[in-house]
């Protein structure tokens, strides 16, 4: 990772790399991009919906509801931490580092792209608010996401691509901050607080472990 992680993120990172999640679960950098997308998305998406994306198709491989709540709590702690950082203008993404000690921004971008896919139509709002800064930020993120998602042979090369790639680690936090500021200035519904996003699970609700079963027939059982 690109910096020393606080204890709760070390725990989350270790869990995401364990055998208690499926092979298609997000890693910490992908999750970080995904959460940033959830926060700046013009549409409010409740955690009960997006949390299932984190753990992959097989969901959490834990045996008690207390463990489910504890692990989901680690995700929500990062979610609210990102909101606080954006509120204070000090947002910093989590990037992986490759064998050459280079920051790998493409994994973060893949997570952001997954967030966009949950409400693709909502992102058009940034074409109408925030002025040129927000529009440029949206273009930057979209182009980086496209480059991270498509094989090079399938990409249509643009003159600006080399500049975007080299500057991506610095451009990403700037772009996210601009989108957050534009959303806030517009008065669009902001992300909810930790209290408001607390996962209150009803017996007949889908289990947050991602199994697809009702809570009463899964982790509550």
Overall description:
- Helix content is 52%, strand content 2%.
- The chain is built from seven helices and two strands; from the N terminus they run ααααββααα.
- A two-stranded antiparallel ribbon has the order 1-2.
- Helix 1 crosses helix 4, helix 2 packs across helix 7 and helix 6 packs across helix 7.
- The mean pLDDT is 84.
Helix percent reads 40-55%
Globally, the shape reads globular
Proportion of strand residues: under 5%
Q: State the end-to-end distance.
A: 37 Å
Largest sheet: 2 strands, antiparallel
Task: Write down how many β-strands occur, each being a DSSP E stretch of 2 or more residues.
Answer: 2
Rg over C-alpha atoms, rounded to the nearest angstrom: 18 Å
Defining key terms:
221 residues; two-stranded antiparallel sheet; 7 helices
Condensed summary:
The termini are far apart.
Topology:
Layout: H1 7-16, H2 28-40, H3 47-55, H4 65-87, E1 96-97, E2 103-104, H5 105-118, H6 131-149, H7 161-186
Antiparallel strand pairs: 1-2
């Amino acid at each position: 990772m690109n910096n020393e992680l606080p204890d709760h993120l070390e725990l989350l990172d270790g869990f995401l790399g364990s055998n208690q999640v499926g092979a298609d679960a997000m890693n910490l950098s992908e999750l970080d991009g995904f959460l940033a997308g959830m926060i700046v998305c013009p549409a409010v998406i409740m955690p009960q919906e997006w949390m299932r994306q984190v753990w992959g198709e097989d969901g959490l491989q834990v045996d008690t509801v207390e463990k489910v709540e504890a692990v989901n709590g680690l995700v929500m702690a990062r979610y609210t931490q990102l909101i606080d950082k954006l509120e204070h203008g000090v947002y910093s993404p989590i990037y992986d580092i490759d064998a050459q000690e280079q920051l790998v921004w493409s994994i973060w971008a893949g997570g952001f792209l997954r967030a966009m896919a949950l409400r693709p139509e909502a992102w058009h709002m940034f074409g109408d608010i925030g002025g040129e800064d927000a529009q440029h930020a949206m273009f930057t993120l979209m182009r980086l996401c496209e480059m991270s998602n498509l094989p090079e042979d399938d990409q249509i090369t643009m003159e600006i691509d080399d500049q975007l790639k080299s500057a991506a680690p610095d451009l990403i936090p700037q772009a996210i901050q601009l989108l957050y500021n534009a959303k806030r200035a517009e008065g669009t519904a902001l992300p909810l607080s930790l209290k408001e996003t607390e996962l209150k699970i009803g017996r007949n609700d889908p289990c947050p472990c991602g199994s697809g079963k009702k809570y009463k027939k899964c982790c509550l059982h």
